[in-house]
UniProtKB/TrEMBL annotation:
Gene3D superfamilies: 3.30.160.670. The lineage of its organism: Bacteria, Pseudomonadati, Pseudomonadota, Gammaproteobacteria, Cellvibrionales. The keyword Lipoprotein applies. It comes from Cellvibrio japonicus (strain Ueda107) (Pseudomonas fluorescens subsp. cellulosa). This is Putative lipoprotein. Keywords: Lipoprotein.
Amino acid sequence: MKRSVIGGFLVLVMLLVGCSTKPYVETDYESGYDFSQLKTFKVAETRQDVKENLLISPFTLSHIHTAVDAELAKRYQAPAADSKPDFVVNYHVVVEEKIDPRSYNELYGYGWYGRGYYYPYPRPFFYGVNSGVRVYEQGSLIIDIVDGKTDKPLWRGVSQKRLSRGLSPQKQREILSMAVTEVLAKFPPVK
């Protein structure tokens, strides 16, 4: 009895950890570059000239700029007024509509396993497994780091997260701040 209670508790903990809403972060970088030589940085202003950026509030973009600058200022310095920085940071936000095909059981709801047990009796005609399509928005925060002297790309970090509708601007900025922190935690890359 005691083992089954402990086992059930562990399964519950694993399910809760697996259902966390952390953004997915992916990075790529120039493998032959010596990142230890980077000392100074500058965050470039983003332009709202493409369709995806026009839908993003300029206040949200300003918040991202401030968050990126504050996170990098913990480890790097601003360049002197008359010199170029060692690296320049560009950032982009993209919001895309995605399609998620799902199946659901009308008696027990969404899920892969349906009922979860064998139901030997004839079921009512309106219960059964149906399929449908969900449309949702996925947000991507892309942070690019380029060499300040040659303009060659050095590193890219991407954070992706499914977005909820109806978030307040304050909640959006909290989520973006966490995404900036999580992406830049992977810079510089560990070889």
